[in-house]
Amino acid sequence: MPSDRTPTPHYVAPVRDVVDTVDAVRVGDKPRSLWADAWRDMRRRPTFWITSAVVFVVVLMALFPTLFTQVEPYGVGCSLANSNAGPTDGHPLGFTLQGCDIWSRIVHGARTSLLVGFLATAIGTIIGTIMGSFAGFYGGWLDSLLSRVGDIFFTIPYVLAAIVVMSVFSQNRTPLVLAFAIGGFAWASTARVVRAEILRVRQADYITASRALGLSRFRTLLSHALPNALAPVIVVTTITLGAAISAEATLSFLGLGLGSTVMSWGLDIGQAQSSLRVAPMALIYPSIALTVTVLAFIILGELLRDALDPKARARR
After folding, report:
1. What's the average model confidence in pLDDT over 40-63?
2. Prediction pTM value
3. DSSP codes of every residue in 36-49
4. Coil, helix or strand for 312?
5. What angle do CA 57, 59, 63 make, to 5 degrees?
6. Where are the beta strands (DSSP E) in 106-211?
7. Is the pLDDT of residue 10 over 60?
8. What is the pLDDT of residue 278?
9. What is the largest CA-CA distance in the chain?
10. pLDDT class for 5, splitting at 50, 70, 90?
């Protein structure tokens, strides 16, 4: 039975108009890279600016402590007459058991804590990047060997390993030795990330073209594969930095980290536990500084990871 309804006309644009619209490129437009998209995404998030401000202040504090306090954190700046005393003029956080200014100790202790964290992270990142890139790019027996070595180190808690190392070098507990003790056992997770990215990048057309043009495998790895696999490495490095700072504080708190002549937040927390009931602020203030710093680095790494992941951006 024929229908009485009149069919609704549909407009179909000409193919040429559609192609011209889709392929139109404005002359002033610049191609955006992955990092440009990540920056555009992060700068819209208030959390990024808050954590960046915290990291900036802590780094500035470590580099130029005299901008934040003029009080000596040890020696002439300490007096037993002020032992466990509360806040006074010029000393906003009070004094430690030895009569040293707590705020000055926090400011000057930031340098050592960040130094150990940066050195340990750099050591772990370098070792992990070398092991992961060679394992992923060359494959075969080298991949099997390096992966098994990484699995062994991955099963060893690096804090426990650092305790053993620092016990052996108990007479030479410097920031450099402590950084090697932490970073030398914390590279396995970085190696896994690098290996996975290299395996993904290795199948790309530009890698095949590079080999076809006569570049050696090592040059191809160094010039093409590794630079395109660094984005997740930077994310892991940022998160590892916070963990390394926390590991230094843990070892120093246990008395197995830095020597007593060095200032760090972990040492101040460990020394303040004996007077916890009398002056709890001497322990709480360095703990807050440590927690805020570690949390800022970890959150910054998480934000960077989400910004560099196109799938995560699409889900938001």
Report:
1. 89
2. 0.80
3. HHHHHHHTT-HHHH
4. helix
5. 115
6. none
7. no
8. 83
9. 107
10. low
Rounded distance between C-alpha atoms, residue 177 and residue 155, angstroms = 22
Helix (H, G, I), strand (E, B) or coil at 166: helix
Which tokens go with 14?
Answer: 């000409």
The H or E element that residue 12 is part of is none
Residues in Cβ contact with 287 at an 8 Å cutoff, skipping those fewer than 6 apart: 265, 269
Digit-coded pLDDT (tens) for 126-161: 999 999 999 988 888 998 999 899 888 888 888 888
How is residue 165 written in tokens? 């190392």
- Residue 63's pLDDT is 93
Residue type, 26: R
| CA–CA dist 154, 149 (Å, integer) | 9
Tokens of 179: 């950084």
| DSSP 8-state class, residue 5 | P
Q: Which two tokens stand for residue 314?
A: 């699409």
Residue 164, CA distances (Å) to 103, 152, 170, 185, 269 in order = 32, 16, 10, 11, 21
End-to-end CA distance of the chain: 51
